[in-house]
Amino acid sequence: MTSEAVIIERLKNKSAVIGIVGLGYVGLPLVIRYSEIGYKVVGIDINQDKVDGLNQGISDIEHISTESVQTALSQGFRATVDFSEVESCDAVILCVPTPLNKYREPDVSFVIDTMESIYPYLRSQQVISLESTTYPGTTEEELLPRIECGGLKVGKDLFLVYSPEREDPGNAIYDTATIPKVVGGSTTTCLQVGVELYKQVINQVVPVSSTQTAEMTKLLENIHRAVNIGLVNEMKIISDKMGIDIFEVIDAAATKPFGFTPYYPGPGLGGHCIPIDPFYLTWKAREYGVHTRFIELAGEVNASMPEWVVSKLMDGLNEQKKSLNGSSILVLGIAYKKNVDDMRESPSVEIMEQLRDKGAHVSYCDPHVPEFPIMRSHRFELKSVDLTAQNLAGYDAVVLATDHDKFDYSLILDNSQLLVDTRGRYRESYATVIKA
Fold it and tell me: pTM value?
């Protein structure tokens, strides 16, 4: 049998061992899904504490239950920091971070370092899938040469695909199984194997002609959101100057049954994808002599929103004859989106840093983030304060940055001296509320 026939048969009869590298917001849901379908899964991560916790049946991600991890363990899942385990895997799925560096250029070092770590253990009759968001060409330019330098031939001995992650933490409607999966292969044979890898666990697999097409698809999805959010954020600023409620405008426009999709403004962009992915394309486009003005303009607008929120807060304090310097400010919600514990690229943190730099005394309340985590670029030694009437009244101002459903919005309104609403929770006009 050919190598592709062997791996396809193993995937079909579920005798294939699935290796998942990176056990975070993307990798761990895949662990759960492959395990519940009946595959043996090996999870690899460089964080020993995470690995130890998972092997004890403990989830460190709020929306992934401890029970689901324990069930996966009972079905044969185990986590490790040992990359040599890759040799025992028939499929290896890479789910590692792809951040930006300080110059807002793509940092694919995690992908490259992971590839270097697994390279000694690659063998024939394996499929390698990269899920990390990246610029078009990464799979062919960075992964393929490293695989083939040892003599393995992609498309004949080993099969290489790119399939962008589409996880949406906290989404109660769509999950790993129900979100369609785009797959592109380095060769047509690679594509066939890649489709087989995912069709066992995903309801709909969408094959495309190349890894570059799949990589560009992911970028388009997130750039589409970034540009539209940038547009509505700019509309918010214009509407504010004109005394118009942008949320009322959006709701009215959304009644049009065609040609309009509602996007809502906020304090900035957050999450690992939307604030970052557009810059992957702008960087790659320069190689082809293209300046992505439209995308970069949207990025500038979105990046300026935390400063806009702080300026609105300062205006409100000034009206009360208070200075931001020395004022006590409570930030409500520091996760990047409602009802999750995900802090990646959260605009709330940018707001907190700007407030601190201007001399304010900053606290936060977030029912999903009890203690401010250690982050690569941000540092606060804070714990979430209790949301009580007495606590609220003790702050000079409260900034609603992330509108978690767990917040008591009547309590917040009734007890805040000054409330800056960045999410449109308070649609009516209130003397103490500033809409930002």
Answer: 0.92
- Cα 103 from Cα 267, distance rounded (Å): 22
DSSP state of 139: I
% pLDDT > 90, the chain: 88
Q: What is the CATH number of the domain that holds 307?
A: 3.40.50.720
Assess whether 176 and 278 both reside in one domain: no
Q: Are residues 96 and 199 located together in one domain of the fold?
A: yes
Q: How much is the pLDDT for 364?
A: 98
Question: What is the residue range of 58's domain?
Answer: 3-208
Residues 6 or more apart from 113 whose CB is under 8 A from it? Answer: none
Helical H segments across 243-393, by residue range = 246-253, 277-286, 293-319, 347-357, 389-393
Please count the structural domains in the chain: 2
Parallel, antiparallel or unpaired: strands 158-162 and 126-130 = parallel
Contacts of 16 (CB under 8 A, 6+ apart): 7, 10, 39, 90, 91
Q: Is residue 225 part of a domain?
A: no
Q: What is the mean pLDDT of residues 76-80?
A: 97
Residue 328 has pLDDT above 90, yes or no: yes
Catalytic residues: 273
- Flag whether 281 is in a domain: yes
pLDDT one-digit tens code per residue, 115-125 = 999 999 999 99
pLDDT at 105: 84
**Same-domain pairing of 430 and 320:** yes
Whether 118 and 173 share a structural domain: yes
Q: Is 221 helix (H, G, I), strand (E, B) or coil?
A: helix
Q: Name the residue with tokens 């999709």.
A: 261
Q: Between the CA atoms of 195, 197, 203 and 204, what dihedral angle is there, to the nearest 10 degrees?
A: -20
- Environment class of residue 436 by beta-carbon count within 10 Å: exposed (0-12), middle (13-18) or buried (19+)? buried
Q: Residue 79: inside a domain, yes or no?
A: yes
Model confidence at 11: pLDDT above 90: yes
Count Cβ atoms below 10 Å from residue 3 Cβ, excluding itself.
Answer: 21
pLDDT in tens, 132-150: 999 999 999 999 999 999 8
* pLDDT tens for each residue of 365-415: 999 999 998 877 778 999 999 999 999 999 999 999 999 999 999 999 999
The C-alpha R_g of the chain, in whole angstroms, comes to: 24
pLDDT value of residue 267: 96
Same domain flag for 75 and 184: yes
Query: What CA–CA distance (Å, rounded) separates 20 from 86?
Result: 9
Q: Which helix (H) or strand (E) holds 69?
A: helix 66-74
Q: Note whether 87 and 17 are within 8 A (CB).
A: no
